[in-house]
Every structure is written in structure tokens, then in C-alpha cells.
Design goal:
Layout lengths: L1 E7 L2 E10 L4 H11 L5 E5 L2 E5 L1 H16 L3 E5 L3 H10 L1 H4 L1 E2 L1
Parallel strand pairs: 2-3, 2-4, 3-5, 5-6
Antiparallel strand pairs: 1-2
Length: 99
């Protein structure tokens, strides 16, 4: 799992690349956690992600909860149709802001 982190003031854009599965999700979470410090907005750009498992969903939910706790916001952008279907089936469309 390769991920790019771009900071612009208090906005963090996270750009994972590849699969968000049980093998790669812990690494993304480990890399992302320190990057969240001091941020008020997180944008997760899934343009280069072709697959997401429950492990990837957990990482997104954890980041969403952390941002909520500090009155911040998080949104997910550029999810492909497969990932949008997974979000719909799992109820994540009700939990996350997806554009």
C-alpha cells in the first residue's frame, strides 16, 4: 500500500493507491494516524483504489470518528462504482460523506 498525504493548512488529503484490504489497511492506518494531528478536515481520495475490504472500511470509519470527536469533518471522493456498491451494502453511505 502506497499512500500520499497532502496538507494544505488544516486540511489533509489522503490518496491511497491500490487495494485497501486486510493486508494493507493496517499500514494505511499506521501512516495516517500521525498525519491527522492538528487537522480539521480530511479528504480521502479513492481515485487509485480499486478494492476495499472490511479492513479498509474500518480505517475509514476510525478516521471519521476521530474527526467527529474534534469537531472536524471527513469526506470521501472519487470512489469507483464497486466501492460505492460496498458503501451502499454496508450502510457506509449513511456514515460517511461521499462525493
Amino acid at each position: 500500500m502506497v499512500a500520499e498525504f497532502v496538507k494544505d493548512g488544516t486540511t489533509l488529503t489522503v490518496k491511497p493507491d491500490g487495494r485497501l484490504d486486510t493486508a494493507t489497511s493496517p499500514e494505511l492506518e499506521r501512516l495516517m494516524k500521525p498525519e491527522l494531528k492538528g487537522m480539521t478536515e480530511v479528504i480521502v481520495d479513492l481515485e487509485k483504489v480499486d478494492y476495499i475490504s472490511s479492513g479498509g472500511l474500518r480505517v475509514l470509519l476510525s478516521a471519521e470518528q476521530e474527526m467527529e470527536e474534534r469537531d472536524g469533518s471527513m469526506k470521501v471522493i472519487h470512489a469507483n462504482p464497486y466501492i460505492m456498491e460496498i458503501f451502499g451494502i454496508t450502510g457506509f453511505l449513511d456514515l460517511l460523506t461521499v462525493e
